[in-house]
Amino acid sequence: MTIKWGIISTANIGKKAVIPGIKQSETGEVYAIASRNLDNAKEAANELDIPVAYGSYEELLKDPEIDAVYIPLPNHLHKEWAIKAMQAGKHVLCEKPIALNAEETQEMLEESKKAGVVLAEAFMYRYHPRYQMIQERIQAGEIGDIRGIHGVFTFNSAGAKENVRFHKDWGGGSLYDVGVYPISAARMILNEEPQAATVHALFSEQHDGVDMMASGILEFEQGVALTFDCGMWADFRNRLEILGTEGRIDVPSAFVVNQNESDHFFISNGKGTEEVKVPYVDQYALQADALGRSILEGEALPFSANDAVLNMKVLDACLTSAEERKRVEIKGEA
């Protein structure tokens, strides 16, 4: 058995990364794609060899052949269409950030429970085996106790004024778009939730007031912190450093990896610096297979929808801190 996927939107992330990943997965096939313009849907279907094209999202959700949908719509539409998909009995993989805030995400979680379907946030990098390898090296004591994590994810698209990332009401801004990566990575590596956030941001009037650059600190237990910066108006960077008492781990391409090339990270300690090679894998295919096994075999998702709620609580605190210029405590769990 395979999962038949429907794609809601012809967004580039779907066409260039997620759809090819699903096609290379062991459990899935891309059956249909929808756009609000039928010609656009047909063009994408022809380009990507997808059997069915729909001129509306509603038509796709009515198709009984479709088991699961992938949603790469602008952020403010995630909740609406994820809920409609789940109410139609479809499993959902929703692009990050899964919603505009933790409250919306909680609503989506409750809907998934009610409908008895799988809901997951599309953080593809977490499925890459290098992070399991990194965790194993940390647990083996190769860098001692973790003292801090530093993550950066920046790029420059400031000239593209019509970009959906530059609409404040649509959930635009660098924290939503790329800040979520180091935030989720620190939570994953430390396996705990931060207690407070302090963030400073550059809000640009040229870009509808969204944060085009943000720098912050998340406070974890025992004095450990994530320091991070993210931006859409800066030179490209995509790195993560895990600092320990006896060494450190450097991940040069922490979130976006070079397609069709082997990957690596570095461990530095008293024995010197070791380059750890990781064979090439398609992290989008691995993400699709994790959902596929959950749907077909009932296997637990590595990262549940509850994790998405917790991640959005942190993002809520970061946005509030940046807007109000203050430290914001993060209380409780989902």
UniProtKB/TrEMBL annotation:
GO molecular function, one term: oxidoreductase activity
InterPro entries reported in the protein's UniProt record: Gfo/Idh/MocA-like_OxRdtase_N, Gfo/Idh/MocA_domain, GFO_IDH_MocA-like_dom, NAD(P)-bd_dom_sf
Record-given protein name: Gfo/Idh/MocA family oxidoreductase
Residue stretches making up the GFO/IDH/MocA-like oxidoreductase domain: 131-249
Record keywords, A-Z: Oxidoreductase
Signal peptide per UniProt: none
Pfam families listed in its UniProt record: GFO_IDH_MocA, GFO_IDH_MocA_C3
Family: Belongs to the Gfo/Idh/MocA family.
Gfo/Idh/MocA-like oxidoreductase N-terminal domain span: 3-121
